[in-house]
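Chapter summary example: a protein plus 2-acetamido-2-deoxy-beta-D-glucopyranose.
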Amino acid sequence: MFSKAALLALSYAAIIVTTVFGQQVGTNTAETHPSLPWTKCTRSGGCTTQSGKVTLDANWRWLHSTEDPNTNCYTGNTWNATLCPDPTTCAANCALDGADYAGTYGITISGNALTLKFVTNSQQKNVGSRVYLMASDTEYEMFKLLNQELAFDVDVSNLPCGLNGALYFSQMDADGGMSRFPTNKAGAKYGTGYCDSQCPRDIKFINGQANSAGWSPSSSDPNAGTGQYGSCCNEMDVWEANNRAAAFTAHPCTVTQQTICEGDSACGSTPTNRYASVCDPDGCDFNSFRMGNKLFYGAGLTVDTTKKFTVVTQFITDDGTDTGTLSEIRRFYVQDGKVIQNSRVNVPGMSSSLDSITTDFCTQQKSVFGDTNSFQDKGGLAGISKGMADGMVLVLSVWDDHAANMLWLDGDYPTDADPSAPGVARGTCGTTSGTPAYVETSAANAFVVFSNIRFGELDSTYIPIPIPTGNPVPTNTPPATIPTKYGQW
Ligand SMILES: *[C@@H]1O[C@H](CO)[C@@H](O)[C@H](O)[C@H]1NC(C)=O
C-alpha cells in the first residue's frame, strides 16, 4: 500500500442517527462472518478445501455507546467528546457492532468468489472495504509464506483508473491483539488489529485504545481522519491493481509484530519524515509497466484485463526450505489455459534478465530510478522474511486514494516529474484521473472479484490436478514455453 491513510470511507456510523434505519436497528446486529472456502495444496497430495470466513475491518463498523446503541461514538469523521474524552475512556465506552456485509458494504461471496463492490448506497453511502481471512470466528488465518506459493483468480475488468483491488499480507496478531492488549474486547472477530507498512493513523483503535486523542478529521474524506497514533507492521503486497496497472511490492519493517507509533516522525507521516518510521513505506515494487514493458498488462494485452486470470506468486528461500530466508518473489499468470511468464525488466541501466523481486532487482531499481532505498534500510528481503516466518494475515480490499489519486500505481508519479524519466510512468492513467470525487460517482458500480484462493508448496497450486507419481515434478520456474493446457501437465 502506498497511502492507505486515505482509504477509509466508513459511513455506517452515521446510519444510526438517521431516523428510520436508526430506530429499526436500535439493537446490535449479529456478526455473521461470510464463508470463503479456499484450498491448501501439496505437490503429492493435491488440494484440500479449507472452510475459511472473512471479517470486516473494525474501522468500517458502526461504533456506538455501550450503554445506548442509539448514541454513536464516531459520526462522520469525528468522535463524540463526551464518550471519548481520552483513548482509555473511549475504549471502555464504545462498542463495535456486527456488519450487514452485503447490504451496507457490498461484500458478497458466491462459492469461492469474493466480490468487493466499490460504492454501496443503502441508508448511507459506503466507499470501499477491507476484509481479513479467518481460521475461526475469533482468529485470523496465519499464513507462513516462506517456500510456499499463493494462487488466486482475479477479475479486474470493472476496476478503472484510481481504484485498487488489493490482496496482500500484513503481520497482524492472530487474535487482533486481544491477548497483548486486554482492553481490546472485540478482537479478530470484529476485524481489529490492522497494521501495515504505512503505519496508518486513520485506525480508530490501536493496542486496545481509541485513537481519538488529537484526532484530525480529513479535509477531503467525510468519513476518515487521523489520530496521534499509527499501527506499523511488515506488509507483503501480493496484488495491487486495477484494469490498467498492477504491482507486487515487499515492504519490510524493523519490527516483527504489530507495533504502535506516535506522531509525525515516528509514524513517518509527512514528506519530510517519510522514512523515519520503523517500516519501508515505498517498498520494492514490480509493476510491469514501470519496469519497461508497456504492452504486458491491460485490455487485450499479454495479461488481458478484460477477463479473469490467475495470479501466482512464489516466495523462494535461499536454501529451498520453509526455514530459510526469503531470497526471491516470483510471479507468473495463467489465463486461457496458458502460463504467462512475468515480464522482464526493460529499463536502461538495469539487467534485462530480471523478472522477479530479488535483492539485486531492488538495488538496481532504487539506484536507476533515483529512489530512496528505504527497502534496504528497513531490512530488505531478510527483514520481511522474519514477518513471513511468524505468519501474516491475508487482507482483501478495494479502495480509492485521497492522498495521491492512485497515480503511484497507474499513472505518472510524482505528477510533476518528467514522465520519460525512469520509474515515473507506472500505467496509462492520466495525471488528472483517479480523484475520489470523480471515481466515487463515475465508477460507483466498480467491483473486484477474488476467487479460488490456493496456497501451498511451490508448484502445487496452479495445477488443478495432482501430478501422478512417477511424473517429473515441475521446477520452481515453469518451462519457458508452455503450450499445454491448464490442467493437462
Ligand atoms: C455524545 O454522547 C453523549 C453521552 O452518551 C450524548 O448525551 C450525546 O448526545 C452524544 N452527542 C452526539 C452528538 O451524539
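Key point: The two ends are 36 Å apart (CA to CA).
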